[in-house]
Amino acid sequence: MGERKRIGLREVRALQPREIAWDAAVPGFAARRQRDTVTYILKYRAEGGRQRWATIGRHGAPWTPDTAREEARRLLGDVAKGGDPSGDKQTRRKATTVAQLCNLYFTEAKAGRIIGRNGEPKRASTLESDRGRLAHVKAVLGSLPVASVTKQDVTRLMHAIAEGATATGVTKTKPRGVSKLRGGRGVATRTLGLAGAVFAFAVEHGMRADNPVRGVRRFADGRRKRRLTDEEYATLAAALRKADAEGLWPGAIACVRFLALTGWRSGEALGLRWADVDLTRRTATLADTKTARSMRPLSHAACEVLRALGRGADNGLVFQAARGDGVMTGFRKHWARITKLGELPADVSPHVLRHSFASLASELGYAEATVASLIGHKLGSITGRYTHTADAPLLAAADAVARETQARMGETKAAKVVPLLPRAANS
Questions:
Q1: pLDDT, tens digit, for every residue of 69-91?
Q2: β-pairing verdict for 283-289 and 20-23
Q3: Are residues 245 and 389 in the same domain?
Q4: Domain range for residue 310?
Q5: Contacts of 345 by beta carbon, 8 Å cutoff, 6+ apart
Q6: Distance CA 409, CA 401 (A)
Q7: Is-cis flag, bond preceding 62, omega within 30?
Q8: N- to C-terminal Cα distance for the chain?
Q9: Are residues 357 and 393 in the same domain?
Q10: Number of domains the chain contains
Q11: What residues are paired with 5 via a beta bridge?
């Protein structure tokens, strides 16, 4: 290999055609001149002892001797963990179609190498949603070369999903059976969000120069703003009583009541384990939510729902399935049965309970940050980073909103809300 020196600008400029300068600081890192260009490279041995060469990039922005050296260190770190940068690049170059790109992206995400918005690898539930959305993308654009996709193609994808053209016969796997993927404007907008990430991945790995999703006008986000009316609160309470009388699974009934009293996401409640719950301090600590770790205050009413179930083993689920030890996968069927008993509108979903809870909290005068802490919105997630128990104001807020919920369900009397007057400057 010849004499090794720490590669700097002087060594790069002094390189003759076909000459290689090896770095003394990072093993295998080198600069090589070919005619008028200098390229930074890394020589390493992959798993199994096979010698590999990885091209870092040409000299010039962003690659300087220092930045290329740091990249070489990063690549060697990947090699130490069993990676193969050169082999991975060859695999990426073979992903010539959008379908292959989608498969590669999903494989990388499943391996934890795609970082989500919260700075963490994607959760299993997010991956399952991604699998379905990628199926929509592959159904419309799958056969196209990655480099040839245009904004017009992306717009065509969006309208195809919105009109339901990709829904028929497309399924995603579930623990029990399959679930048909549906179209619609909301699905189209969310799928384009993922498609943007997939093509950003393609740009990052040199499969194309730009992101064709960027700049495409999308449908409104379709966030559900539906909330329960006073009559629907009363109807829901009556439906829960009917469900209990008809012998519907008690765990499902308790879960619906808990969701109404807390504003949690249904997946958070269904995944709740007794080890996460401290009924004495009236808190629940969720390690893996949509906004990462989250600490939630529990109202007295919510605690009563949990106590009525009877505490199980620490690793046991709070809301148990009717069969087996896993998560209650049939919850949506139970929900449909309850809403049918109450003749509630078809657009009343478990998420409507969440939005209703947040709306009640706002009506009671609580600040946005307090509401976020109650239901685990990202705005309030900082609470869960540093505390293990809820403070008194949060517990009081949880109790107030739960009491208002019960009042509208006809189970308690509504409290009269008296707005606080500002204090005088010198009082």
A1: 999 999 999 888 888 888 777 66
A2: unpaired
A3: yes
A4: 230-408
A5: 232
A6: 12
A7: yes
A8: 83
A9: yes
A10: 3
A11: 23
